[in-house]
Amino acid sequence: MAALAEEAGVKVVLGSAKKIQYSGDGKEVKGVVYQEKESGKMVELPATDVVIAAGPWTREVYPSAPIGAMRAHSVTIRPTRPVSAYALFTEIDLPKNFGGRGNESLKSVRKGGKTVTPEIYARPKNEVYACGEGDNEVAFPSSTDLVQVDEGRCQDIVDYVGSISDELRDGEVTARQACYLPNVQMGSGPLIGETGVKGLLMAAGHTCWGIQNGPGTGKLISEFVFDGMAKSAKIHSLAPERVL
Could you tell me the pTM of the whole model? Predict the structure, then answer.
């Protein structure tokens, strides 16, 4: 997508946003201060329109935003044979003596006798994605490359899904990973649209559905920028102004 944007004349800059600049009365956005990824130097970028689409890092540049962050672990597995193109939202009742098959040193959240709810998604090229419950056990990192992965929680997911599928139990685990989900802490979300500051828009708080809703969110934000209002959907209930 970035490459297509560049072909259309967009200049893509890689860096970390540090501060939003406002007019003297705070009613209008004036630009952004960011740190260049390669040089590390701070740069001021004047702007008439700024879109905050920083996910769980929204508060880093807009502290009053009611956007929280929850860590979520996931794994990808190559099953022993192709699986059907379905998504499963499970409720698995574990036996009291449940222990799984993984290395004991990796286990962190054994839940024998309880119900767990991993989600399982079939992917192309004979791959399955599975994710588990969220947690807030470690401090929120300042950037994506500092996200801590709990190998025990990943093994839990492998064991949970393997308890109901031989294909997953005997498959090859190809990735163990973690990310942070942005959630709206006051009411429902996501928050899409105007913030009450002229030229400052927000698109955040999609929880785990950002990939699904990202294209629609992008279209709506582009309408705010170029047309001054959302035209393709009625999103008054998602307006950031109602909670800021």
Answer: 0.86
| Closest among 74, 211, 209 to 130, alpha carbons compared | 74
**Structure confidence by residue, pLDDT tens digits, 84-119:** 999 999 999 988 888 755 555 444 455 667 899 999
What CA–CA distance (Å, rounded) separates 90 from 175?
21
Amino acid at 135: D
- Cβ-proximal residues to 127 (8 Å cutoff; 6+ apart), any chain: 76, 77, 78, 174
The first and second tokens of residue 237, run together, are 């209930």
Query: Which phi and psi (to 5°) does residue 192 adopt?
Result: -135, 120
CA distance 74 to 106: 15
Half-sphere exposure in the Cβ direction for 101 (13 Å, CA): 12
Q: pLDDT value at position 102? A: 54
Helix (H, G, I), strand (E, B) or coil at 214: helix
- Residue 106's pLDDT is 44
- Per-residue b or e along 66-98, where b marks 16 or more CB atoms closer than 10 Å to that residue's CB: bbbbbbbbbbbbebeeebeeeeeeeeeebeeeb
Q: Which of 189, 190, 160 is nearest to 173 (CA)?
A: 160
